[in-house]
Inverse folding.
């Protein structure tokens, strides 16, 4: 027995199409994991079929809203409520939506990382060597 593991970075619309296709093929949702960076979150969606394990990563800017996967993976609602509450990811149409009451936490979106005002994006040709 040998496990197969893949990680692919996709855009948001491709993710939805891929996840729907995987659900129809019999893949189960294993997890949804978020990691915060300044100004954006990386979210990895993992599915499995037998010993085949596939991961799809999307990059979500802080103010970008993504749609739920609850319509075809009902268990996604727990992961989506979690990333919404802890990371500030905007997820539309979660069913049920716990409205940031999944956890008892003292700080709102404790893992969210906003862009710092001191960061300046510089084009390569502007950099002096």
């Amino acid at each position: 027995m040998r496990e197969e593991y893949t990680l692919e970075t996709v855009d948001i619309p491709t993710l939805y199409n891929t996840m729907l296709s995987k659900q129809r093929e019999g893949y189960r949702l294993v997890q949804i994991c978020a990691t915060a960076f300044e100004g954006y979150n990386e979210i990895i969606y993992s599915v499995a079929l037998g010993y085949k394990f596939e991961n799809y990563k999307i990059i979500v800017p802080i103010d970008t809203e993504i749609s739920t996967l609850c319509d075809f993976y009902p268990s996604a609602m727990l992961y989506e409520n979690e990333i919404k509450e802890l990371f500030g990811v905007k997820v539309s149409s979660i069913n049920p939506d716990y409205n940031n009451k999944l956890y008892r936490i003292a700080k709102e979106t404790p893992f969210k990382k906003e862009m710092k005002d001191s960061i300046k994006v510089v084009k390569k040709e502007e950099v002096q060597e």
Observations:
- The chain has a mean pLDDT of 87.
- The chain is about 20% helix and 35% strand.
